[in-house]
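Risk mitigation, structural track. In case the binding assays with magnesium ion fail to produce interpretable data, a predicted complex structure has been prepared as a fallback.
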Amino acid sequence: MDAPELIAGVRAGDRRALARSITHVEADTVIGRALLAGLYPHTGRATTIGVTGSAGVGKSTFVAALAREQRRRGRTVGIVAVDPSSPFSNGAILGDRIRMQDLTGDGGVFMRSMASRGNLGGLSEMATGVVDLMDAAGFDIVILETVGAGQDEVEVATATGTTVLVTTPAGGDEIQSMKAGLMEIAQVMVVNKADIAGADTAVMQLRALLAIASERTWEPPILKTTAREDKGLDEVSDAIDRHQAYLKGSEHAEQERRALAQSQIVALARGLVQRRALAFARAEGILGQLVDDVAARRLDPRAAADALVDAVQRNWSRSE
Amino acid sequence: MTTDTARNIRVLIAKPGLDGHDRGAKVVARALRDAGMEVIYTGIRQTPQMIAEAALQEDVDVIGLSILSGAHLELFPRVVEELRTRGVDDVLLFCGGIIPQDDIPKVNAIGFKGVFGPGTNTNDIIEFVRNNAPQRV
Ligand code: B12
Ligand SMILES: Nc1nc2c(ncn2[C@@H]2O[C@H](COP(=O)(O)OP(=O)(O)OP(=O)(O)O)[C@@H](O)[C@H]2O)c(=O)[nH]1
Ligand SMILES: [Mg+2]
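Fallback model:
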């Protein structure tokens, strides 16, 4: 299928066309870029929800439960789940589907796993593009699950409208040491695994942290869920709806959209610049020469980096 | 200038049937990951519909079924049928587990190109996938 056929298929709700389109966008093929160009004008209708939190807090279980709740509310759901790629082999085991088994037979749900492919920030570089495809395909809700690790995975906030931060009662120490940044990206806070002891303590810790965070016009609710038993998702869905309404009504709505657009452009451009620059420097032998010089201590790494960037810049201004 | 990133081979490893023999499937999933592939592992107790639907949504290049229960001649044709109804017609199918020698030609005829039994060296599995996975985009 070529790009026009895929675009028509995606817009008509053809699941196979959507699946193949995602493959193209993920691989950043020529067709993939044509798909994004053709489909982007048809995005912006879906409610996009990011779900982040440390490894094992129950993000996938939570996403599945949230999807079921959204289905009960009559909405269709697209899901993108990112798992880490191995830094050694570039391979990955994508296991998030295990927790979403019962959704597989539901025609109103489409779930896609992605590997992070070396991208830092908790997402795959093309994850926002895949969210856009699902949006254009007409799903009412698109949920994006990030890689679960550490506290630097804040990129999700630039990819979705409402970000949900998932923690657990066992994460008490972690909550106390949580960086302000992670708190500030989340508009809904969830203490999952509320069936185990300490959930109320965790809620209090989160509340205390929020109290010292900076001034804001949206007050993130702190909610308890037991995702494994489908409990608490009603309140979470209500909170997400309230935040969406706030976003639309906010006087800052336009400003927020522009900020989101800017961070998406910058994130993608950063990757492109890096890959193109390195490809050029390798092909021209510039990188190899600089490596020789630095390894022999004729040149320091900082000066070598300068030389590399200068060479790239000269080349790019010539090819204009 | 093109910036096409390398396309990783995507593999679905699934366990049809009601038994819980998942060691082999996990060994194979890890071996393929360590060989640089992206492996979607869906866990045990998959129906043919679930396997075909996952393969469609994930747009995998390869589907590997692990089966030790003896139900392969019953379940494999149903997986193939479910794939066909969804228009998934360009994937490589292969399998492993307990499949008696006499059944191998039948399993091949159903559409499974490679059959790997107990004691298989995972390097042979990796080589098989690398040599046979379709290159589609
Ligand atoms: C360990 C084991 C168990 C464990 C399973 C633990 C687990 N989580 O996996 C336990 C104790 C739970 C178990 C239970 C049962 N088992 Co049992 N079990 C075995 C045993 C001894 C080894 C299987 C194993 O793990 N091997 C190690 C792995 C790494 O090897 P593998 O699975 O063969 O995988 C390799 C290849 O086959 C291949 N491969 C496997 N999958 C795939 C997939 C792809 C895509 C590819 C390319 C390759 C590939 O690559 C792997 C690496 O080389 C086998 C006998 C045997 N020798 O195989 C019986 C066996 C499979 N079990 C059997 C039976 C009958 C049972 C029970 C029904 C027993 C009972 N009456 O209660 C129960 C079923 C319980 C249930 N609900 O599932 C029979 C099945 C008979 C049949 N097919 O007709 C067997 C063959 C024993 C026998 N000779 O009778 N079992
Ligand atoms: N007790 C309890 N366990 C839960 C709950 N929700 C999820 N779990 C368990 O937590 C474990 C991890 O769940 P996942 O959903 O895979 O967690 P995750 O955050 O997606 O994990 P990664 O994607 O690997 O980071 C599983 O064993 C779940 O069954 C819950 O509400 N209560
Ligand atoms: Mg997960």
